[in-house]
Write a structure and sequence with these properties.
alpha/beta; 4-stranded parallel sheet; 4-stranded antiparallel sheet; elongated
Length: 469
């Protein structure tokens, strides 16, 4: 089964065929770096990371671009509030972005361009749009002429009149039409600015992505991703200015993830339910949060709740326990007869996983197949003292391959300084049990539990593991 994706441009599933065989040009809208990013932002960051990993796993060379918007009105206001420059604000929150994204297991992009570092290509694309009659300058501001692009509205599937009726539009009598949008903004007193043919100023939000996408990926790209809230006006405007400037189709496949709700309500600072990843990480393990964010199909809404997090934690613990049990068995238990039921289940789990991922990156279905694998491994280890070594090695390989895509297992740990103390306590407990000093044995177990350590007694001896925070 070949990969199919739901293309928001055509509103149907299509076979994925990149513009250039074997290569994928992938652009994803990144954060505006004026604060810690919130849980709604985290969903596309994690999901598109998974899509990129899957494309690489099936043989594509992926050039992945995720931008930073490091100049806009919100950034100027926040910098003024904090008494620092916009550049200092950007540096701070780009570093904070990487800390949270790294914790969530989000792979680094091939390149993370910043708007303020790309003024030359931004100014060039604005100049091109003016020269081609798609933009006009008024007192240092430059606006895109929406009427000059006959296909405006093709992504949101609305006419100009429908968009005009439903849009929140700043009233500006200098614009020729209400839907015309800013490509370049004349500098106001006290604001950062860059020199341009239209005087000192800064770019509008939409033009940044068109300029950076064109610079790093070319005039036409394979996939553009982002949240569904960006379809209009941001992505609609990207299409208009990019296709008018470059005389080429901008994006072949548009992918958008659905909203994330907080206890079934839209996230809003006014409702007091605005949650940053930094705050959530204080009481939720990042692996659990990552798993939660991939637990529903990307085009389905996802509700963030304590119950949902607890379910994700239980699921991750089940995966981790099976992974640990599997490796422990391969290292410590004797080989026995082949278990055809196990082997069929292992093959079926991998087939189900790839079938789901090939069906519009269906992570929920892929996770379901993973738990079929967990069930089969657990049954085999419970019912057999001697193990089917080959079958379990195949299962281990599937854990490794699926984890490389979904990122649900903890990274391999190096021995830590505290491990020696734990090993000593476990050894002392073993001796206490041998001498039937169960009071001391229980005391040690309780002490280890307080340290977040669980002891498991097996026929091959005790082993310990850390609980999820």
């Amino acid at each position: 089964m070949s990969l199919t994706v739901y293309n928001d441009l055509t509103r149907k599933k299509e076979e994925f065929i990149p513009i250039e065989a074997g290569k994928v040009r992938f652009y994803v809208c990144g954060p505006t770096v004026y604060d810690f990013f919130h849980i709604g932002n985290a969903r596309p960051f994690v999901l598109f990371d998974i899509f990129r990993r899957y494309l690489e796993s099936i043989g594509y060379k992926v050039f992945y671009v995720q931008n930073f918007t490091d100049i806009d009105d919100k950034m100027i206001r926040r910098a003024n509030e904090m008494g620092i420059t916009v550049a200092e604000l950007a540096e701070k929150y780009i570093a904070e972005y990487y800390e949270d994204a790294d914790a969530l297991g989000v792979s680094r992009a091939t390149v993370n361009p910043r708007a303020t570092h790309e003024m030359e290509p931004i100014i060039e694309i604005v100049k091109t749009l003016i020269e081609k009659g798609h933009a006009y300058e008024v007192q240092g501001d430059v606006y895109f002429n929406v009427a000059s692009f006959g296909e405006y509205g093709k992504l949101s599937k609305q006419s100009v009149d429908e968009l005009l009726a439903g849009a929140r539009i700043d009233v500006d009598e200098r614009k020729q039409r209400p839907l015309d949008f800013a490509l370049w903004k004349a500098a106001k007193p006290g604001e950062p600015f860059w020199e341009s043919p239209w005087g000192p100023g800064r770019p509008g939000w939409h033009i940044e992505c068109s300029a950076m996408s064109t610079k790093y990926l070319g005039k036409s790209i394979d996939i553009h991703g982002g949240g569904s809230d960006l379809i209009f006006p941001h992505h609609e405007n990207e299409i208009a200015q990019s296709e008018c400037a470059n005389d080429a189709q901008f994006v072949k496949y548009w992918l958008h993830n659905a909203y994330l709700l907080i206890d079934k309500e839209k996230m809003s600072k006014s409702l007091g339910n605005f949650l940053t990843v930094r705050d959530i990480r204080k009481h939720v393990n990042p692996l659990v949060l990552r798993f939660f964010l991939m637990s529903a199909h990307y085009r389905s809404p996802l509700n963030f709740s304590q119950e949902g997090i607890e379910q994700a934690k239980a699921a991750v613990e089940r995966l981790h326990n099976c992974w640990a049990d599997l490796r422990f068995a391969l290292e410590n238990r004797s080989a026995g007869a082949a278990d055809e039921t196990l082997r069929e289940a292992v093959k079926g789990a991998w087939d189900g996983f790839t079938e789901s991922m090939n069906d519009d990156f269906n992570t929920a279905g892929a996770i379901g197949s993973l738990f079929e694998l967990v069930r089969a491994v657990n049954v085999h280890l419970t019912e057999n003292q001697e193990i089917d070594t080959e079958g379990l090695r195949d299962a281990k390989t599937i854990f490794e391959k699926t984890n490389a895509i979904l990122g649900y297992l903890p990274e391999e740990r190096q021995k830590e300084s505290g491990d020696a103390e734990i090993d000593a306590l476990v050894a002392e407990r073993t001796e206490a049990r041998k001498s039937k000093n169960f009071k001391r044995s229980d005391e040690i177990r309780d002490r280890l539990a307080a340290m977040g350590i669980i002891i498991e007694d097996t026929p091959q001896g005790p082993r310990w593991k850390r609980t999820l925070a």
